[in-house]
Specification:
The structure is a single chain. The protein has 4 domains: 126 residues, 2-Layer Sandwich (60s Ribosomal Protein L30, Chain: A), CATH 3.30.1330.40; 80 residues, Periplasmic binding protein-like II (D-Maltodextrin-Binding Protein, domain 2), CATH 3.40.190.10; 77 residues, Periplasmic binding protein-like II (D-Maltodextrin-Binding Protein, domain 2, 3-Layer(aba) Sandwich), CATH 3.40.190.10; 88 residues, 2-Layer Sandwich (Alpha-Beta Plaits), CATH 3.30.70.260. Helix 3 links the parallel strand 6 and strand 7. It is of the alpha/beta class.
């Protein structure tokens, strides 16, 4: 198994034990989250600190995080005129089959100027977008589709970590899947929108095209077992059945590709994205193998700032009514009487009040449009609770030019 180098750096405010320990833990947490690192897979860790810092503390921070059996080394850097001050750097030697291109390095605070992937030596870091899943997940494919390959994609283990990454400043934006045209709404995602105060600043629609991936040199005739997430396997059920292949469940689509690349087990394939194949060095044997050609996932782009108005906008909000006859009808009539088109309405249990519900609504237009602004003011009177999730540029349907700016 090859040993990959994972790099990172962070600056601290002062040369104190608490500041250095806290910053080092923050850096290591970010590297673990971005790469899915496990201490058991780490061969060694090499910390350096600039001469204005006490270099004896970073390794202690790693021990506090539970890296008990990992060899650690601290060192003091040579003094270099004009170099960044109060800086801690780390090099983690990671035993992994992950390709070098899939390794995520992390540079935080003022150390962002040291990032090797900054264009033209700019002092501000590139845009970082947090998503849930392994590198090569469909969420990352949606990021590349929307923003291109130049942005930094930050892998998170859960939806909660997406919110934490944006709120904590480790990511500029978060990409949250909220519904699929085949499987419906993702309820846990909607619940988190209610719990947090991030704004919906955009939406992305990804036409999901499943690919059959296999190690280089594998032929279709060699395949006997196919690994993937249960939902992906279900979406390709007819394809697999017609070929007589055994479907084997895995925890994640991109994860199944990563594990297949590591095992190189003969006769096995994985269903994942084309991007996952590129990252893990697998060949695409066939693409578009899903049973339905209309498999699309919709994502919310989350941020802290309100986006500028565009030509085509949507607004998302959540509200709750009193538990009385006609309350929902009267609330929705505020939109109907003003000719506002609702593109989605869905109820979810109100967790702090059993058998009461909140209603998630998407509508066409921006909250600053006069008729929508009037509707929202009237809805405040009609409802027990209203939360505006955001107004944002509407995404075009995959393959369509409508809504493009």
């Amino acid at each position: 198994m090859p040993c990959r180098g994972v790099r990172g750096a962070i600056t601290v405010d002062e040369n104190s034990e608490s500041a250095i320990l806290g910053a080092t833990r923050e850096l290591l947490d970010a590297l673990v989250t971005a790469n899915g690192l496990r201490p058991a897979d780490v061969a060694s860790v090499f910390f350096t600190a600039t001469p204005d810092l006490d270099a004896s503390f970073p390794a202690r921070a790693a021990r506090q995080l539970g890296w008990a059996d990992v060899p650690l080394l601290d060192a003091v850097e040579m003094a270099v005129p004009g170099a960044l001050s109060c800086c801690i750097r780390v090099l983690i030697h990671w035993n992994t089959d992950r390709p070098a291109g899939a390794i995520r390095h992390v540079y935080l605070r003022e150390a962002a100027v040291l990032r090797p992937d900054l264009a033209g030596g700019e002092e501000s870091p590139m845009t970082t977008i947090a998503y849930q899943g392994e590198p090569g997940a469909y969420s990352q494919e949606a990021i590349v589709q929307q923003f291109g390959p130049q942005v930094e994609a930050l892998a998170c283990q859960s939806f909660d970590e997406i919110f934490a990454a944006v709120e904590g400043g480790r990511a500029n934006l978060g990409l949250l899947p909220v519904e699929n045209s085949q499987a419906g709404s993702i309820n846990s995602a909607y619940d988190l929108l209610l719990d947090h105060d991030l704004r919906v600043v955009g939406e992305v629609k990804l036409r999901v095209r499943h690919c059959l991936l296999a190690p280089p040199g594998t032929r279709l005739a060699d395949i006997k077992q196919v690994y993937s997430h249960p939902q992906a396997l279900a979406q390709c059920e007819r394809y697999l059945k017609n070929r007589g292949w055994q479907a084997v469940t895995a925890y994640d689509t991109a994860g199944s590709a990563r594990e297949l690349a590591g095992r190189r087990q003969p006769g096995c394939g994985a269903i994942a994205s084309r991007l996952a194949g590129e990252i893990y060095g697998l060949e695409v044997l066939e693409t578009g193998i899903e049973d339905s050609p209309d498999n699309t996932t919709r994502f919310f782009l989350l941020g802290t700032e309100e986006p500028p108005r565009s030509e085509h906008n949507k607004t998302s909000l959540v509200f709750a009514t009193s538990h009385t006859p006609g309350a929902l009808y009267r609330a929705l009539s505020e939109f109907a009487t003003r000719g506002i088109n609702l593109t989605k309405i869905e109820s979810r249990p109100r967790r702090n009040r059993p058998w009461h519900y909140v209603f998630y609504v998407d509508l066409e237009g921006h909250w600053q449009d006069p008729e929508i602004e009037q509707s929202l003011v009237a809805l405040l009177v009609r409802s027990a609770y209203v939360k505006l999730l955001g107004s944002y540029p509407a995404a075009s349907e995959p393959g369509s030019a409508i809504g493009k700016e």
